[in-house]
What does this fold into?
Amino acid sequence: MTAYSSKIEGFLKEMNDCDQTCSNLREEIKRLRTHRMKLRADARCALTNQAVLNAGEPFYTFPSGYVFLSSALKKEVMPLLNEKQKARVEELEREIEKINTMATTNAEDESRGRGLQTELDGLIAAECPLTGSVLVNSIDQGFDTDEITQRTFSKHIHGGQINLGYSSVS
It folds into this structure.
């Protein structure tokens, strides 16, 4: 009986710890929803070195300070996703495109589109590919030597800042 009581107390403590962790995560998510970052007018994509404000496409900024064009980030992250995630990204993109090309949209369609975009952002931009666990977990993998996909680290100096990114090798 005492052994069961000890186990129950242990489970209760574990449940309280999990509850506290969930509360902390909720607070962090709430904080990040209103998080604002300053972006330099000459900010460039860390993967393509293209100016993000003139690129004509969405871009992502990360707390690490790196900025990525949406297409470049997707190209970098897609090979790292599992098959189910890849299929979901493609499905989300089709649904978003369908909503965006509708002649008229109502508030429900717009809300659904925002929800789909948020889910897509969660898959593509879950973390910075140059500073997150993706980079750490792939450190033991060799470089792909295909002529098109071969990449090398390079230094880009912008406005006195050193930006370590990828550039294609020809």
Observations:
- Residues 145-170 have pLDDT under 50 and may be disordered.
- Residues 36-168 form one domain.
- DSSP finds five helices and four strands in the chain.
